[in-house]
Design a protein that fits this description.
BirA Bifunctional Protein, domain 2; Rossmann fold; 3 domains; seven-stranded mixed sheet; single chain; globular; five-stranded mixed sheet
């Protein structure tokens, strides 16, 4: 898509209730967005699809939901306190603040001035006071990723479930990073949601599983409606790897603003479980340990054959919900030319992701018989538990069709006077605009088939 179509997409998101600038009535707050009536449905559907594929469709993965406030010791031992910062440079001329590695030829990229400050460290983690007295001695971080709470709960999950290696722990939830320059709509923001899996494997089997999960994640994004030609795999260079990573493969997507990361699949080795374990020397680990702040857990498993203790390696597929949301909207957004020089905007979303699964429309809004029949069908379809079904009682069929094309509703069902006579209704397909009549008694099964597929 072009930058122009990105502008149209942003406009659509506000006009139709997908995404709003947070605190907009007070001028907004950079890097923060609110999800409206349709946006929250699409977002929840995306997370639900991920959860289904990770937890419900597998027998070797469990889910958790952990706290956002994080003990500073967790992020000390994970390496975040030491590494989660960027050197910043201020431009004295235009007052811009820029990451030092974005400075070329000692010139401000905004105005070209060479009047720059020396680089200064900038902490990317949000800190908050805990307790009644704000004296700086009792604080917590808002988690910068959901992964660490999975690692600290490793033993709890292992002790309460019947799993052996390999197995995984999945989590979706909020994370927070004090981004220096939030940009590109919802692509880079300060408050976001992650969909993360930590998959624990035996050392020596990590490279095999890294390849397995890379392939699985590519297939999953295609099933969400993303064309494979818009996806690329990037092996992150060794000198650009995160402090915990042995190897990382990024799934890159062609966003309107360029090729950017959609999801990363990292081989985190035994870094995290080792860093949070007591008795590292006994486990043959080299993690730096402060005996005064060491954890009281041994995050290891015993090999059933050799009886040796093993610290599992971890393969981590980690995706941002907002980045997935943006990629899916971008992929589905179309403007089609119709006869007579007219246009229609269509979101060709996969039905399982569509915010509204079906709209039931009475031909005349003031006709009690038509409205009652439409309500009955709406309630029947809603009871199937496949998502939201809407009664669209606007009285204008053409405008209703266009609106639901624009928000991605897979089908519109019109109840007309013929429906009262012979018990049939008109089904209109979003993508083809084709219409057919079905017995109302058979619409439930047709609806279930469309959404399930």
């Amino acid at each position: 898509m072009t930058a122009e179509s990105m502008d149209k997409l942003v406009a659509l998101c506000k006009r139709r209730g997908f995404i709003f600038q947070s605190n907009e009535i007070y001028g907004g707050l950079q890097g923060l967005y609110d999800y409206g009536p349709l946006g929250v449905e699409l977002k929840n559907n995306l997370k639900r699809s991920w959860w289904n594929s990770m937890v419900y469709e597998r027998d070797d993965i469990e889910g958790i939901d952990s706290s956002i406030l994080t003990n500073p010791l967790v992020l000390k031992h994970s390496g975040h306190e030491e590494t989660f910062s960027d050197p910043l440079v201020d431009c004295k001329s235009c007052k811009s603040r820029i990451r030092a590695d974005h400075i070329k030829e000692n010139k401000c990229p905004e105005c070209g001035s060479e009047d720059l400050t020396d680089p200064r460290p900038f902490n990317l983690m949000f800190k908050t006071n805990v307790g009644p007295v704000e004296d700086g001695s009792s604080f917590a971080y808002l988690r910068p990723e959901t992964a660490q709470q999975i690692f600290t709960n490793f033993k709890n999950v292992l002790d309460s479930t019947p799993h052996h290696l390999p197995f995984g722990i999945a989590q979706t939830g909020k994370a927070f990073r004090n981004e220096i320059t939030p940009r590109n709509f919802i692509f880079r923001v300060r408050e976001f949601e992650q969909m993360e899996l930590e998959f624990f494997v035996k050392p020596g089997e990590d490279e095999k599983w890294h390849k397995v999960w890379t392939d699985l994640r590519m297939d999953w994004w295609e099933k969400q409606g993303i064309d494979k030609k818009n996806l690329e795999l990037l092996e992150v260079p060794k000198d650009e790897l995160a402090h915990y990573s042995k190897a990382t493969v990024d799934i890159m997507y062609k966003y309107p603003h360029g090729l950017e990361e959609l999801e990363g699949i990292a081989n985190r080795t035994d870094f995290d479980l080792g860093s949070h374990s007591r008795g590292q020397s006994d486990l043959g680990l080299t993690a730096k340990v402060d005996k005064n702040t060491d954890s009281n857990a041994k995050l290891a498993v015993q090999d059933p054959d050799t009886k040796d203790w093993i610290v599992p390696y971890v393969i981590e597929p980690s995706a941002g919900v907002e980045r997935g949301f943006l990629a899916i909207l971008n992929e589905a957004f179309k403007v089609e030319e119709l006869e007579g020089g007219k246009e229609r905007t269509v979101l060709s979303l996969k039905p399982h992701l569509s915010p509204i699964k079906a709209a039931v429309i009475p031909l005349k809004r003031n006709n009690e018989d038509l409205v009652q029949k439409a309500k009955e069908l709406k309630n029947t379809l809603q009871s199937k538990g496949l998502g939201r079904v809407l009664l669209e009682n606007s009285g204008n069929i053409g405008k209703s069709y266009r609106r639901h094309d624009e928000i991605g509703t897979p089908m519109c069902i019109t109840i007309d006077f013929e429906s009262l006579e012979d018990g049939t209704a008109t089904i209109r397909d979003r993508d083809t605009m084709e219409q057919k009549r079905l017995d109302i008694s058979s619409i439930s099964e047709y609806f279930k088939e469309i959404i399930d597929n």
